[in-house]
UniProtKB/TrEMBL annotation, chains A, B, C, D:
Gene designation: iolG
Subunit architecture: Homotetramer.
Catalyzed reactions per annotation: myo-inositol + NAD(+) = scyllo-inosose + NADH + H(+)
Residues of the Gfo/Idh/MocA-like oxidoreductase N-terminal domain: 22-142
Record keyword NAD present: yes
Protein source organism: Microlunatus panaciterrae
EC number per UniProt: 1.1.1.18
Protein name per its UniProtKB record: Inositol 2-dehydrogenase
GO MF annotations, alphabetized: inositol 2-dehydrogenase (NAD+) activity
Amino acid sequence: MAETSTAVESRPAAAVPAGAELRVAVLGVGVMGAFHVEGLSSRVRGARVTVVNDYAADRAEQVAASVPGARVEADPLAAIDAPDVDAVLIASPGPAHDEQVRACLARQLPVLCEKPLTTDIDSAYRIVQAEAELGRQLIQVGFMRRFDSEYVRLRQLVVSGELGNPLMLHCTHRNAGVPATFDSEMMIRDSVVHEVDVARFLLGEEIATVQVIKGAATRRAPEGFNDPMLVIFETESGRVVTDEIFVRTGVGYEVRTELVGELGSATIGLDHNVVRTGADGRWGGEITPGFIERFGAAYDRELQHWVNAARRGTIDGPGSWDGYAAVAVCEAGVEAVRTGERVTVTMGRRP
Amino acid sequence: MAETSTAVESRPAAAVPAGAELRVAVLGVGVMGAFHVEGLSSRVRGARVTVVNDYAADRAEQVAASVPGARVEADPLAAIDAPDVDAVLIASPGPAHDEQVRACLARQLPVLCEKPLTTDIDSAYRIVQAEAELGRQLIQVGFMRRFDSEYVRLRQLVVSGELGNPLMLHCTHRNAGVPATFDSEMMIRDSVVHEVDVARFLLGEEIATVQVIKGAATRRAPEGFNDPMLVIFETESGRVVTDEIFVRTGVGYEVRTELVGELGSATIGLDHNVVRTGADGRWGGEITPGFIERFGAAYDRELQHWVNAARRGTIDGPGSWDGYAAVAVCEAGVEAVRTGERVTVTMGRRP
Amino acid sequence: MAETSTAVESRPAAAVPAGAELRVAVLGVGVMGAFHVEGLSSRVRGARVTVVNDYAADRAEQVAASVPGARVEADPLAAIDAPDVDAVLIASPGPAHDEQVRACLARQLPVLCEKPLTTDIDSAYRIVQAEAELGRQLIQVGFMRRFDSEYVRLRQLVVSGELGNPLMLHCTHRNAGVPATFDSEMMIRDSVVHEVDVARFLLGEEIATVQVIKGAATRRAPEGFNDPMLVIFETESGRVVTDEIFVRTGVGYEVRTELVGELGSATIGLDHNVVRTGADGRWGGEITPGFIERFGAAYDRELQHWVNAARRGTIDGPGSWDGYAAVAVCEAGVEAVRTGERVTVTMGRRP
Amino acid sequence: MAETSTAVESRPAAAVPAGAELRVAVLGVGVMGAFHVEGLSSRVRGARVTVVNDYAADRAEQVAASVPGARVEADPLAAIDAPDVDAVLIASPGPAHDEQVRACLARQLPVLCEKPLTTDIDSAYRIVQAEAELGRQLIQVGFMRRFDSEYVRLRQLVVSGELGNPLMLHCTHRNAGVPATFDSEMMIRDSVVHEVDVARFLLGEEIATVQVIKGAATRRAPEGFNDPMLVIFETESGRVVTDEIFVRTGVGYEVRTELVGELGSATIGLDHNVVRTGADGRWGGEITPGFIERFGAAYDRELQHWVNAARRGTIDGPGSWDGYAAVAVCEAGVEAVRTGERVTVTMGRRP
């Protein structure tokens, strides 16, 4: 930690001088990372991408070429250490997160880390601890639904008390399709993880148990895969959360959430603002085709909040504890898929 | 009128003894008449069809054969005069209505007359006068929307004052298709006539002027036909009613009504109770294919109200004045189509 | 059974001569029975109430007085045996059903029995067997949702294959309020029982297991009551059914059902046909206040189907096996409430 | 024009060097201008406000103080001439627009001018001509609905041909309330003007005639004011556009548009993505309270498009001709209010 301390001394808490743009290294420029590069470069104010890294060199080159002033850095740790980097956006594959996030902490750089924080519960907890020892929040985790106007409205309805005590939460999470290799474990870690954070965000407490009920599978799923599944969370205070996860509907991207309170209920994600009729004798609208169409604005808002906060050397959104809690619940969820039993979520003490 | 008086004497005001069923002659058994025969025979309580009449003998035979105890009578006036007839349902072509309704009045039989009451304003007014001289309401006109639960709810919202003073009314009336001969005049007399009655029912006053704006026509319409058209009514107190009439949409049967009041607005006809998604990536529902699907229950309710009232020798629904007013407005509407001008509706004094 | 046999011989299979009305004894005229008496007397064709029975003599008198030609019979078995009774509608309290239904079977009278068929699984099975020995279906059970146009539509979507194989079913069942004594067991037997039948009707197979998850309770519920609860069924083929049962929402009567198929999903019960805006700055509609407003038309359609069938000496709707299956599932459901475990449903062989 | 020529020479067509931010002078910082200042400073990329002008000195000071690096310039023409200004955003009162826009043209500065372009048809046409003589598009007019995702989607449905030939357009434009002085002429010039542009945008042609029907007025309107009104446009090709304009509903901001095509219809502005139930027994959502909530994102998107284009010395949105056409139609609309007649729109030749 000696070197880290040195680094800390050489770098003020608020990383960016007034008027200057936040210089961002983006690690991993697959679909999500490239989308963020574009957001930082054209839709968000106050930052610019200076360094691009990807294990696929040609992809890194291609993305860097699209951004004036950006260069490629082949080694992610070198990118983090680069003198023209004030903050880091991690969109690399999950297994790379642990080392990359810790390197950012070592340099005390603000970081926006796409989920998962790390791929196992122990490393995630160690990161929580390391950040706590620094005494500053530097890690923001990419749960972008917290920036979606509809989830924000739902949270307001909870906080304001208009719906009374929230008793149940019903989530629907459907994708038109996924790669053939997307198995039950990935359904938990990549898809259900969003509802894990949504439930924690809306209800304001931790998830205590997970149960998964595997029903009849769609023929679209490979033999032996469970799709759809019903995931049931119970929270510390005994609230019940259901999540239908169905990733091969052939229909579209349907993400709906109904919160049932003591005084009323509210549903978001209805996608009902444009309605038309047609010669097929039907009325209705188009289902959002994918997550960028549905949550694109939330991603940009997430970026803008993060950039604004990172310029002050902090975060403005879900932090490392939220990332850790999601890893812990997903860990239990994966075991619940395997055993068919209700599994208790085990979490460390919050520092 | 002497004969009529005799008839009156020979027949008590309440035509049907307690416990007995109302014996109905149905004149005209095309789509509408046959639907009513079926309703009187299987969905409505307290009546049965005893006599069937139609200018097409085979159609009359076919319908009568489907009803136990019903017989054919080739002459509509003989049907009205038959000793086993307590009430008459007129679903014959419009030009036959005048003579048939007057024959019913002469025998003082309760009558349910499909619109139009008659095909010209003078004969319609003479019927209003003749009924007024009898001193009893015997003529109910088949404006079945008044029995539709949604229009009833809308009327309640007006009457209760919840919407405040109703200022505007916007109507949409669309059919998937019509026979090739269905011209602008028929659009007024057969389609818009429903909105004429709806406007009078909801607003509780007479229509004072009619204007018709012929816009760009659909290619589905024969050369020279105006489809769609925008019809604009102004009422005696100056309220504005718009009606988009479009009868060749190729889509379905769409009948919507929005009432705009001083304190709020309300829309009915939304057809939104069943929603589904499909592999076409759309959400939504099916548009009602035709008027029986949309208003079938209202027709049956109309029949039940009429049967209950006719057993007491009276009506329970829109009367001859409502039929007359609709004829008068449609008369002006047809002229408005021809001239493109705002045409004043001319109506006689209400007896 | 000797006397019964005599009765059978003295009474033809088709109980009612052509043209005559079905004479119905109604046992139990609380809210539901009185509603049925009114339906049989004014909204349904082909039947009339001749005998009224209730353990509360004054209530029976009051209801009988409202129907011309109806009389009170103080003893339900005497009512069943009365010579002016062709069929029996049982709306008495559940514990009385077993003896009353068996008396109807003994006289081979068609019967419409409100749920539950009986209050325990053994007596219900004995009724199934007794009817099977008769070789005719005489018992129809009052699961009226099968006659609701929206459930019928949903069933059609399943049968037609438009939604593909149905994989999950999500039900919501909410009441504004219930009597203070309405406990978790009653929530299963009186409320969830409808979803039991809906699931069997829509999916066309039996329910194999039941699990109940009791979450945080509303403050409106008495201490120690579980409201809301999440009930989870798995069917023989492994489909998953969820049912949120919440009977003290203070909001209204909300009954929604979403079927998730391999090719798409469909939701009914949306209550969205009338929409309005108001000075409170909200758009929307009124939630159905109670079950009669929501399912009144289904009840009448059920009655009409039953009357038509009973005149031919048979049934047209869910039968004794459906009543038995519901009892069996509810039995398991009540145990599931007690134990918190997944409980297997035990059912006898279908005769 | 000599001075102008000089200015042109001294300033390259593409006003901003790569990498540099567009320096914007904002003229008029009332509600709209202040909102734009905030947008340019925190939500839009590539520009910053350097100069703020308002006839109310204190307001200008207050707004400038909120933006690092911005200063006040008391004279709008001096602001336009300032060396640290690359582009101008005009949000001053309408009567000031003519002189300010012409000054921008003289300096060949890109300008985003809030509607109206000018307050009379002749001055508007002279601006169109002056810009045409320059041979470059510099004037973008603030019809922000063209940047709203729903209008964009509706336009796509027209362009793609999915709805077939558009035959009618029905617009609803309602405000909860307006200042007491907001009279019929202002309803045309400030409110209906949006539907003028929407109709031109969606239908892709000019409006030929305007008619205004004044119905019963709400009691909320001052004596002699006409609120609501029905405005009817006919386009060059004979399409019909209706616009209900009602600015004192007491309800909220309701802006809906239904396009009726030969092959189907589409409606936007439904505001139905969040739905809730409550103890008032109603389901539904909140109506957008005002234009910033409804169109805030469209305003920002408009700014971003304009900034991107202005950096290249051009526009990306509705131009001076669109501003002129709107003035011409509103001129006719105001006369239509006065006369009650159908008024022909008079427009100059498009340069």
